[in-house]
Each structure stands twice: as C-alpha cells, then as structure tokens.
Amino acid sequence: MIKTVLDDVKATEIRCIRVSAITAMFDYVMIATVESGRQSRAACEKIRDLAKPLKIKILGVEGLDSGEWVLLDTGSVVLHLMRPEARSFYNLEELWLID
C-alpha cells in the first residue's frame, strides 16, 4: 500500500529495508525522495486515507511543517520522506543495511 502511494505521488529512489532481524521496534524502514513539502503532505494524507479502512493505525507523523524530512510510523513500517539534500546528508540506508 505505501509503495503504491509513493509511486502515485511521484516519489523517487524508493527503498524498503527489512529490519526485523536487527530491531524489535518495527519490521521495515522505507525511505523515499520527495521534491517538496507538498509532495510529502500528499503522500501522508493518501497513506492515512488508505490505512483507515484497513484498520492500520498511524502512530505518528513528524516533520510535516518543514517537509524537509517527514517520518510516518505505522508500527510495523517507519517511512522516511526526505528531500534530496537531507537524504544524501543523513544516508539512512547505511544505518540499516548490514553486510
């Protein structure tokens, strides 16, 4: 569902990393690049709309005001929507990928 929404709002460089073997806090980290705060807000709104009938709770959303880095938490999936500069600087993939 989240991947479909990200495709719909034209997010790029979408990455889904299974992290359940290294943390009990959530199962997946998703990271996607967005070009604007408007794009982040559209993605979050669509995810909320689709989650309701599926009885998926959105536990929290942070960063919508600036839109530079938005985090959406569903409990099992933590989604990071990041502007290109923030994504490059923080390089979250490196934190979660284990060789």
Taken from the alpha-carbon principal axes, the silhouette is globular
By CATH, the architecture is named 2-Layer Sandwich
Uncertain regions spanning at least 5 consecutive residues:
none
Indicate the structural class. Answer: alpha+beta
Order of H and E elements = HEEHEEEHH
The CATH topology corresponds to Beta Polymerase, domain 2
Helix content: 25-40%
- What number of domains? 1
Largest sheet: 5 strands, mixed
Descriptive notes:
The protein has one domain (2-80): Beta Polymerase, domain 2, CATH 3.30.460.10. The chain has a five-stranded mixed β-sheet. The protein is α+β, with helices and mostly antiparallel strands. The protein has helices spanning 2-8, 37-51, 84-90, 92-96; strands spanning 12-18, 28-33, 60-62, 69-73, 77-82. It is built from four helices and five strands; from the N terminus they run αββαβββαα.
